[in-house]
Amino acid sequence: MANDTEWEKRQLIATYYYLNLLTNDYAILKEKAEAAVDYLQSMGLNITEEDIEYAKKNITENGLPELEVDLLKGLGFSDEEINATKDIVLMLPNETIINYNRTILEGMSVQQAILSWIANNLTGEINEVGFVNASVDIDPDTINLKSKGKWVTAYIEIPGYDVSKINISTVYLNGIVPAVNDTKYGFVRDPEIKDRDGDGYPEMMVKFDRQETKKTLREGNVTVFIVGEIDGKFFAGEDVLRVT
User: Fold this and answer.
1) Could you give the percent of the chain with pLDDT greater than 90?
2) Helix axes 79-91, 66-74, angle to 10 degrees
3) DSSP code of 164?
4) Does 158 have pLDDT greater than 90?
5) What is the DSSP string of 42-94?
6) CATH 2.60.40 corresponds to the domain 130-243
7) Which helix or strand (DSSP H or E) is residue 101 part of?
8) So where are the chain's domains?
9) pLDDT confidence of 2, banded at 50, 70, 90?
């Protein structure tokens, strides 16, 4: 099979998998937003033009409130993305903020619908390619973007499949960083395969260049996914890392 075709299939799987992760995360975020709006309404929050002008002036001079910054960081936002969020808040029309109970939830519903629509429209192509779910455990659990370590290690488990048949040359982290495939390394010539978690299914160990991996990460809790091919089918699985 031609390399460009393999690349296209891998990117299709990566895109589909990421969209589904994003859709699920967005659904959770929307639930939290609905709870927050309900709480604000129960408190009788009534935002006026004067309130908005005061808040925008304060944000312009001091940045977003510390509580909001901590929330965004917890969602995985980088400092640059938080600054961009501040700019977006300052650009919002006052009417949009005054009608927060309607505009926030309606806007989130539209975004969620768009993500779901894109993912659903890829389903047919994904079924043609062939796709199975994998369990992935990435070590270390915390990655410091300033660290000088050499590798990021992943343990891949695919129930119902012989993981020794994973095609290492097709394995990529976040659809971008290739697994180390140079036979000068012992872990490539003789990859470790064992049941580390004792669930009856062995995991295969693969490694990725840490410096290249860091280029795909941002600070916060970050979902990292791995795609690859086994027995003529593509697989994907994810793990959540703490990135500092």
Assistant:
1) 28
2) 130
3) G
4) yes
5) HTT----HHHHHHHHHHHHHH-S-HHHHHHHHHTT--HHHHHHHHHHHHHS-H
6) yes
7) helix 100-129
8) 21-127, 130-243
9) very low
